[in-house]
Amino acid sequence: MTINRKTKYNNPGAIKIFEEFIDESSIRKTLDNLNNYDWKPTWSDKRYAGDHWMSCPLIEEYNKTPNFNLFEIAAIVEDKMKCKIKNLMFLSMLPGGDIPPHRDMVGNIGLGGLRIHIPIITNPGVNFTVGGKKVVMSVAELWALDTSYTHSVQNFGNENRIHLVMDVIVNDWILKLLPPKNIKFYLHQFHIIALGFIKFLKYATSKEMKMSDFLGVVWSSIKLKIRKK
User: How far apart are CA 52 and CA 63, in angstroms?
Assistant: First the structure.
């Protein structure tokens, strides 16, 4: 397992941490087992790429699924990761799959979460972008993805793109692997807060909430916090 020290961190939303996190023999064995696995749509309602995006859950909300013991790589990864793993899964993007640009907060470092990607199989036709920049992930590498940055993926190739993906809880071990926080980090977090506030305002107005009522709720919350101090 070789930690990456050469890459310049020109994309704060996607950072390569390890050059070779998983050995080749484990990758080959995993692929053999996945060939016999009955994949299910990542979302039951088939949102986001429909039947072109399939999954195999290994850990869900900190609990191991029956699939965990089917794949030796799951225990290997659990042992290597010195942090809590909330979710662990194989995600397969089939040829023709397309997930449009979006962002979510489950992997927002500022909120204590992070998404980890380990490519199991990929191809040159994969177009994965984070923060508007293309990210090329190679097999067996370990990447940290901050999902609060806009990201998207398309598989224009002829092979499946399979990643082992996990949502983890950020701790000191994780922070030591990441570049130090700088002004860009804090500006991004401020941007996310602003977007959340704007989204809330749109929600409030869509529910025909009067501005006077909204301000009243805000003022009541402020007074409550003052009393608690």
Answer: 26
Q: List all residues 6 or more positions away from 24 whose beta carbon is below 8 Å from its beta carbon.
A: 140
Q: In sequence order, which ranges of the chain are alpha helices (DSSP H)?
A: 24-34, 72-80, 172-177, 183-206, 211-228
How far, in Å, CA of 57 to CA of 215, rounded? 43
The amino acid at residue 226 is I
Closest C-alpha to 160, from 54, 70, 73: 54
List the structure tokens of 180.
Answer: 């130090």
- Are the C-beta atoms of residues 73 and 32 closer than 8 Å to each other? no
Residue 115 φ/ψ, nearest 5 degrees:
-105, 135
CA angle 191-145-175, nearest 5°? 85
Say which residues have a Cβ less than 8 Å from residue 202's Cβ, sequence separation at least 6: none
Range with the poorest average pLDDT among 32-41, 64-73, 76-85, 203-212: 203-212
Q: Are 59 and 85 in contact (CB under 8 A)?
A: yes
119-166 pLDDT, tens digit each: 999 999 999 999 999 999 999 999 999 999 999 999 999 999 999 999
pTM: 0.84
Enter the DSSP assignment of 109.
Answer: G
Largest CA distance in the chain: 64
Of the CA atoms within 13 Å of residue 111, those in its CB half-sphere come to 15
